[in-house]
Amino acid sequence: MQRLIFALTIIASAADLPKDAPKYTGPGSCASPSCHGGVAPRSDTSVWQNEYSTWVVKDKHANAYSVLTNPVATRMAKILGLKSADTAPKCLACHALDVPDNQRARTFDSMDGVSCESCHGPASNWLGPHTTKDSSKPENHQEWVNLGMRDLRDPVHRTSTCLECHLGTKDKFVDHEMIAAGHPDLYFELASFQSVMPRHWKLATDKDPWVDVRDLAIGGAVQLRDQLKKVARDAQGPVWPEYANLDCFACHHSLTPAMDSWRQERGYPGHRPGNPPWNLSRYIVFKQVVNEVDRGSAQQLSSDIEKVYALVTALAADRSQIAAQATAASEAADKLVQKMTTAPIDAPMTQRLMKAICADADNIAAQDERSAEQSAMVLDSLYVAYSRNAKVDNADRVHASIQALFKQFEDPSSYNGPKFAQALRAVGDLLK
After folding, report:
1. Distance from first CA to last CA of the chain, Å, rounded?
2. Which residues of the chain have pLDDT under 50?
């Protein structure tokens, strides 16, 4: 009862705010058991009504601020010359909801980490209507969007929201300096990341049985588009080359005798030995999706990516030329976003896609650890959807074979391309 009274107090407070001045109210406004703070999910409502509880107990986003005071973050701050990570704007940009004081309601606290409004938008204007109207009705949802709620039901908007931090913007970013200080490099795959959050919304498989495959396809297109925009932006920025755009493990890997080096055995196609190549992980697997949806677009995109790759990997190419080519490629990727939204997806298409990824094992594995990891995440997401919708008599064996791929990523610097390629082909041999 106390939590309900607290939530109603917040709603009343938010209702008093000017409608043209949206403010952040904090996750407490969602925490009532009758709203999103239930203990167990409900099946008789349009939402689970335990979304807040899932976030606060299971979701790492809830701990995003608290990790800024752990030993790793403290060491990073010292290396970067920061007073502390938990007060540095460059850290708070993604580890908390760091907004100006005039956008904070009295119930807001940035120590809540990456909370509800980090993704759903400032709630003061839409919170009242949201609590009194049926969320299953599209017209009500659209009303809330018009009042400032982010439309996360749209996977395009949802992916873009995730990528603000999981890829970066001009104001939120992880550069090579931060990586050198100890921050992980950034990677992302929408369907996989949603699954392990864990997801706190109902997967609409009743409306679209292949919704998670569609999320994967749309997420891949948006991620590639935004990566190319980032390259164009970085090329015009103060530091170039920005090594965060390159393949980290081309340099940061375990050293072995030359005769045992799979990288030296492979050679350095497409770039000069010693030059770390552009990180192709956001393209090398997604291109198989494009091949399935639109082969004509796939050929043009491949040509555009090859040009960007050559320019970025050269390290000393003309910045304006890099920016122009990356921008052109991003526009091509943007056209694919809508095609992925409407593309027909079924069991045969999903199976072909999985087999195509496995058949490209040597090429994927040769691009290094992040490309291999992307292929494993994509395969895992595809097979979860496939085995849910199609009759499969060896599902356990396939699932175990896919999970075995992830063992190579436990120590990324020791990643072995030929061994991963062999394991990826083994998955393909099991697919029926």
Report:
1. 54
2. 1-18
The predicted model scores a pTM of 0.93
| Domain residue ranges of the chain, discontinuous segments joined by + | 2-151, 176-430
Give dist(CA 81, CA 290) in Å, integer.
Answer: 44
- Beta-bridged to residue 24, according to DSSP, are 104
Judged by phi (left if over 0) then psi (alpha if -120 to 50, else beta), residue 315 lies in left
- Distance from C-alpha of 303 to C-alpha of 308, rounded to nearest angstrom: 9
Strand, coil or helix: 92: helix
Do residues 333 and 303 make contact, with C-beta atoms less than 8 angstroms apart?
Answer: no
Phi, psi of 208 (to 5 degrees): -150, 100
Contact 47, 19 (CB under 8 A): no
Looking at residue 107, what is its pLDDT?
84
For 357-393, write each residue's pLDDT tens digit.
999 999 999 999 999 999 999 999 999 999 999 999 9
**Using CA atoms, how far apart are residues 374 and 364, in angstroms rounded to an integer?**
9
> What 3 state SS string does 71-101 have?
HHHHHHHHHHCCCCCCCCHHHHHHHCCCCCH
Token pair of 213 as six digits:
């495959």
In degrees and rounded to multiples of 5, residue 67 shows phi and psi of -70, -15
Single out the residue of 249, 224, 266, 297 nearest to residue 412, CA to CA: 249
Please count the CA atoms within 13 angstroms of the CA of 335 that sit on its side-chain side: 13
